[in-house]
Design brief:
The protein is mainly alpha-helical. It is built from nine helices and six strands; from the N terminus they run ββββββααααααααα. The strands form three sheets. Strands 1-2 form a two-stranded antiparallel ribbon. Strands 3-4 form a two-stranded antiparallel sheet. Strands 5-6 form a two-stranded antiparallel sheet. The longest helix is centred in the middle third of the chain and has 25 residues. It starts with 6 loop residues before the first strand and ends in a 5-residue tail after the last helix. Bound molecules: zinc ion (ZN). The site of zinc ion has 8 residues, from loops.
Length: 284
């Protein structure tokens, strides 16, 4: 049976600012019963149930634009607004991007419809590319978001192919996400990055949880995947997470932008962090 179509190529031709390659972006076809929304996980990730006609759909494999030639990768608004200086350093990194891609997945193909493999790779390449972009592109936040989404996709792949070590790769991406989300909180405080003009914080594509969602995830990732090698590191990490999450909880009442179940989740997380700190002998 031929597989039902789940994506199409966008009308607009994209020109890569780094290597001038012309290509079209693959987009998800979301209508016609393709999307059967499932649960929202504790990490604010929307799961989709498989349907008989379309099978499993992974909307997260499409948002990052990847040049099929030089593998420069970024979210659309950044892809199209790269400055000359950035082009230069991205050019210098081209062979490194290609080498890294081949190391990770020897058989990727960005000229065919994407699979979960190209989805994971798109985020990994985005993390590399944003390393070279100016703060006006909010690279720390975009790297955190990309690492978190890559971890989710690795988890999806691990469910399909449990013997291919994608759980190992997933945990690497979770640790990267934890690092970047912690950095976002610092970057917001010290003014390295400004977040007012980000239209969609995600973390998933179906709902925008705003900067409160970033605060929540920063705390949650620290709690779940933060450093645990010794008690002192754990205490430091949890103390940091507690302060971050209390910025949501402390504001108290729910509002339209802060639905009550979100505030409730944040309060629960705050409680879990406090409990563990008490167990570790801290006064909270
Ligand atoms: Zn290119």
């Amino acid at each position: 049976m031929a597989e039902a179509k789940i994506s199409f190529l966008g009308k607009n031709t994209i020109i890569c600012p780094v290597c001038s390659e012309k290509f079209k972006k693959e987009e998800l076809l979301s209508g016609g019963g393709r999307m059967n929304a499932g649960i929202l996980t504790d990490e604010l990730h929307r799961e989709y149930n498989a349907t008989e006609k379309f099978g499993n759909i992974h909307p997260l494999i499409y948002p990052v634009v990847v040049c099929p030639q030089c593998l420069f990768s970024a979210y659309m608004s950044d892809f199209e607004s790269i400055e000359t200086e950035e082009v230069h350093s991205l050019e210098l990194q081209t062979s490194k991007r290609i080498e890294e891609a081949k190391n990770l997945f020897p058989r990727y193909n960005f000229l065919e419809p994407r699979t979960i493999i190209e989805g994971i790779l798109s985020y990994s390449l985005a993390i590399m590319s944003y390393d070279l972009l100016e703060s006006s592109h909010q690279p720390i936040f975009k790297q955190g978001l990309s690492a978190l989404r890559a971890a989710w996709l690795c988890n999806d792949y691990h469910k399909i192919e449990p013997n291919e070590n994608f759980d190992y790769l997933r945990d690497i991406f979770y640790r990267k996400a934890q690092f970047f989300y912690r950095e976002v909180i610092e970057a917001e405080k010290d003014g390295r990055e400004f977040y007012e003009d980000i239209p969609h914080f995600g973390p998933d594509i179906d709902h925008n949880h705003g900067f409160d969602g970033v605060l929540f995830l920063s705390g949650l990732l620290e709690y779940k995947y933060g450093p645990k090698q010794n008690v002192k590191a754990r205490i430091d990490s949890l103390t940091n997470a507690k302060i971050t999450v209390s910025r949501i909880v402390g504001m108290g009442k729910s509002s339209k932008s802060k639905p009550s179940d979100f505030v409730e989740n944040a309060r629960n997380l705050h409680g879990l962090i406090k409990d563990e700190l008490v167990k570790l002998g801290e006064e909270v």
